Request: fold
Amino acid sequence: MTSMGEPFPVLIVDDQAPFRAAMKAVLKRTAEFELVGEASNGSEAVSLTEELHPALVLMDINMPEMNGIEATRAMVSRHPDVVVILCSTYDAGDLPPEVATSGARAYLNKEHLGAETLRRLWSERDAQAFTSV
Reply:
C-alpha cells in the first residue's frame, strides 16, 4: 500500500484484450493494487505513464508500434521509480537478451500470472537482480 494506505496504481499493457481482461481479474483479487489504465501498445503505454503515474506496469513484450522492451526503456528513463514487470509466453531461457537491461524489474510468464505471484514480485521489486517467474 502507498503511504496513505491507498492501493498502488497499476497500468496494464497488452495488445490482446483477453489477456488484459485476465490481468484485470487478478488485480481485482489484490487489495494492494488498483487498475488505473490499460494500453494496447508500447507508445500508448508511455503516454499513459506520463498521465497516470502508475507505480506498477504489467507490460507485454511483443506488441505493434512499440514493443514492451522499448516502452520499458522509455518509461524507466523518465520515471525510474516505476516498476515494470514484463509479461509474455516465452520460457525464461528464450527471452530476448535485452530484456534484462531494459529497466524492467522482473519477467513473468503469462501462465504464472496470479495474485500471489504478483504480490511476491512486488515485494521483491527493490532487489538488485532481475527476476523471472
Notes: DSSP finds four helices and six strands in the chain. Residues 17-28 form the longest helix (12 residues). The beta strands are 8-13, 33-39, 56-60, 83-88, 106-109, 131-132.
